[in-house]
Write a structure and sequence with these properties.
With about 130 residues, the chain is of the alpha/beta class. The chain has helices at about 15-25, 85-95; strands at about 5-10, 30-35, 40-45, 55-60, 75-80, 100-105, 110-115, 120-125. The chain has 2 domains: about 1-60, Roll (2,3-Dihydroxybiphenyl 1,2-Dioxygenase, domain 1); about 75-128, 2,3-Dihydroxybiphenyl 1,2-Dioxygenase, domain 1, CATH 3.10.180. It has 2 helices and 8 strands. The protein is globular and about 50 Å long. The two termini are about 25 Å apart. The relative contact order is 0.20. This is VOC family protein.
Amino acid sequence: MLNGIHHVAIICADYPRSKAFYTQVLGLKVVAEHYRKARDSYKLDLALPDGSQIELFSFNKAPLRPSYPEAQGLRHLAFKVDDIAQVVTHLQLNGVVVEPIRVDEYTGKQYTFFADPDGLPLELYQVN
């Protein structure tokens, strides 16, 4: 049946700003970038080290995502990390606001949340 997650698709408001965030701040590798003239839209494929990908799209006048209070649908995107404190420090040095690190009451693992340039909730989850 299912073997894992291949990709997560994200629609951004400001393509250059989001591209810089996901590639320069989060360090994701560009797999492919396409400008789709008929849609006046970009599609950027980004790879994580485990082979999963993020597809970053730009669409003119895409509606805002309701988030707070939390709306139905995808709640957040979580990234596995080995050293959460190191990643938090890196994000903060790049101007990203990160919530305090918490401990999952069920697994005992550390996690925290931050947001991408469009306010999409992202999570760091320490797997070790």
